[in-house]
Amino acid sequence: MKNELGEINLIIGERDVGKTILCSNLIENLKFKGYSVAGIISPGIYHDGMKVGITAMNIKSGEQVKLADYSPGWDIENSLRVWRIISDAISWGNDVLNKSIPCDVLIIDEIGYLEFEKNNGWNKSFEILEKNGFKIAFVVVRKCFVESALLHWGKAQIIKIENVEKVDLVSENILHQIEIKLSGE
Question: Cα separation of 113 and 146, whole Å?
Fold first, then answer.
């Protein structure tokens, strides 16, 4: 990671390259150091080594709901969508985001097609990120939505995740930069 962290930082990468693992590392280490961390993280649900679902977890409380089931071909309008979102998880997630600020570090894992293309999903993310009720934010976005994200947050820094093997190194770098950024306030 070459750039210094900004107020809003986009964690970008393709599917299954370690974006959520990076978020988990940040959450664990930042909480251990006493920072208030809030938002949503979306770890996969695996069965026999295959990703079959996605959970959404409230970072503050640890509460979890099932977010999506693996269901290729379910969306006639967009055949590339393989995750069937559970509608109750959307309203739950927007409520979690509403209660996430104020905090030191806000993490939103992830926003994408529903938010950028359909004005749906965890669209509360946009409002929360505009409120500046955090010192630093990390937003997970797939590569195909980077341009859309930058239209909303033009000064956001980009953190590229290309493979799981580099996640620990990127995590250490980010944690070091957060320490510098937040200790100087």
Answer: 11
- Give the Cα separation of 76 and 149 in Å (integer): 25
The pLDDT tens digits of the residues spanning 117-131 come to 999 999 999 999 999
The verdict on residue 103 lying in a domain is yes
From CA 144, how far away is CA 73, in angstroms rounded?
19
Is 99 in contact with 113 (CB distance < 8 Å)?
no
Domain range for 23 is: 8-42+88-183
How many structural domains comprise the chain? 1
The CATH number covering residue 172 comes to 3.40.50.300
Say if 140 falls within a structural domain: yes
Distances (CA, A) of 146 to 1, 17, 78, 157: 17, 16, 19, 11
CA distance to 46, 47, 68, 159, per residue, from 50 (Å): 5, 5, 14, 26
Look at residue 119 and tell me if it is in a domain: yes
Answer whether 0.85 is exceeded by the pTM: yes
